[in-house]
Amino acid sequence: MSSRPLVPGLIAEGEADEGFLGIVISRQLRELTWMSPYAVDVEATEVLSCDREHMVTALEELAADCHLLFTHDDERERRRRDGVRYHSHYLVPVIGLGETEGWLLADPAAWAKLEGSDLSRLPARPRDVERISDPAGVLATTVPRRGKPARDYFEYIGRNIDLAVLAQVPAYANWVAETRNALKGLGYL
Question: Are strands 46-49 and 4-6 parallel, antiparallel or unpaired?
Fold first, then answer.
C-alpha cells in the first residue's frame, strides 16, 4: 500500500515558532493520522517567518507545496477565534495557533531532563500555563544556566514534550480538535 503525503506549513511569528511549533505540528499530525485508514507520510513542517503585511504572500507560497497550513499571530488570534479558515485561492485549511508561548512550559518532565533547569515556577497542572501572565519571564528562569538564550532549547522541548501532557492545555486541545476536523475534511481521517 502506498502512503499519502501530508506536508504541513507554518507561518511563523518568531523563533519559538520555528524551533518549537514546527516540530510539535509534525509530531501531532503523526499522532492524529496514526489511526487513518491510509498510510500517511507526515513530512517535516515547512516554516516561513513573516510579518503581518506579508501574510497573504506567505500563505500563497506555502499553499503551493503544503496540504495544511498553520498560522501563528498572537495579536490577530486575540481578535479572532473562529477555528478553521480556508485560504481563498488554494482551499488549503488554515488553522490559527493562538498564543503558544506557555505551551513550552506545560511539561515539567521535559525540562527536568535538562540538567540545571529550574522547575520551581512551572505550574503543577499543564492547563495552568494559560494563567501565567509572563510566560517569557517564567521561561527565562526555567532554562538551564549555561549561557544560552531560551530559544536554544525550543527545538529540544518540541522533540521531547509529552503530547498527552500538552493536550491538557485547553488552547492546545482546541487546536488539535480543529486540526482533526481539517484532516477529516481533506480525507486523511
Answer: unpaired
Coarse DSSP helix, strand, coil percentages of the chain, rounded to the nearest 5 percent? 50, 15, 40
Pairing of strands 93-96, 85-86: antiparallel
Q: How confident is the model at residue 150 (pLDDT cuts 50, 70, 90)?
A: confident
Residue 96, amino acid: G
Amino acid 122 reads L
The residue that leads in pLDDT, 72 or 182, is 182
With contact defined as beta carbons under 8 Å apart, do 82 and 25 qualify?
no
This prediction's pTM: 0.88
Predicted confidence (pLDDT) at residue 78 exceeds the cutoff of 50: no
Report the b/e string of 162-178 with b at 16+ CB within 10 A. eeebbbbbebbeebbeb
Q: What percent of the chain is predicted at pLDDT more than 70?
A: 86
- Residue pair 9/68 in contact by the 8 Å Cβ criterion: yes
